[in-house]
Write a structure and sequence with these properties.
259 residues, Jelly Rolls, 2 domains, eight-stranded antiparallel sheet, five-stranded antiparallel sheet, 41% strand
Length: 259
């Protein structure tokens, strides 16, 4: 499981992203990004080490384009949300109207032989440029995750629990008719960790507490089925000592999406 504290990994010019304008924003803000200005560049080190990233976003209902294409130069796609359609080996297409309000993710790998990659947004024919409106937008680095902005938690055991927590007021009328208002559905995720040492989880909790939002990526290798979640911890970790020699513990962590 990958933890990232920022929306955009801008730790340094050698490992981060550079935007050509001032459209950098956090998850709870709306952003309008013209196609020509969204050009995040990865400064490669040419050391032969491939780097993987997840582009995670949600399209706003105010996006007027019918479709958007994402093209990766000097890299390749590894995985993407099942509602995204592959057009070419280096290009995928998103039907805007069919995917409004859905979390979408594209996982890709950079090519260290060329150093830089560039992501472009195009319209339905892939030739003319178009703007895009996002409810949220993030780059998540899944390779070399251990630094000030990214950490890697131990692998959790099988059978995690994923679901939703509605923010709504559901009532019943006098004869049984339902009524209410659904404001937003918050994603939830619960994972059990067994035979872990407490150090890395304690360090994570000291930094996250219960109020600091951050990205959790349960399955960095498969964003198709479990997308990243911008979330907070629900409860502090509680450790149960295992009945064996050595200091190994079990614990359960739960997250709730933070809007």
């Amino acid at each position: 499981m990958i933890i990232q504290w920022n929306d955009l990994d801008t730790t340094s010019e050698s490992t981060g992203f550079v935007f050509n304008d001032t459209n950098r924003f956090f998850h709870d803000r709306n952003a309008f990004i013209p196609q020509g200005e969204l050009q995040p560049l990865f400064k490669g080190t040419n050391n032969g080490v491939r780097n993987t990233f997840i582009c995670h976003f949600q399209l706003s209902p105010t996006t007027f384009s019918r479709s958007i294409r994402i093209r990766i130069l000097n890299g390749k796609f590894l995985d993407f949300t099942r509602d995204i359609e592959r057009k070419w080996s280096d290009e995928v297409e998103i039907n805007v109207r069919a995917n409004i309000g859905k979390p979408l993710s594209v996982c890709f790998e950079t090519n260290p032989l060329y150093g830089d990659w560039i992501m472009t947004w195009g319209n339905q024919d892939g030739l003319d440029y178009c703007p895009a409106q996002f409810d949220h937008f993030a780059f998540i680095r899944t390779s070399k995750p251990r630094d000030d902005n990214n950490i890697c938690l131990p692998r959790f055991v099988v059978a995690p629990v994923s679901g939703f927590e509605p923010i709504s007021n559901a009532q019943r009328g006098g004869v049984g008719q339902p009524y209410g208002r659904t404001i937003r559905q918050l994603r939830t995720f619960t994972a059990t960790f067994t035979r872990v040492q407490v150090g890395v989880i304690e360090d994570y909790y000291y930094k996250a507490s219960l109020h600091k939002p951050h990205f959790i990526v349960p399955y960095p290798e498969s964003v198709e089925h479990v997308p990243p979640i911008w979330a907070t911890l629900v409860d502090p970790p509680h450790f149960t000592k295992r009945a064996e020699n050595g200091w190994h513990w079990n614990c359960v962590l739960s997250w709730r999406e933070a809007y």
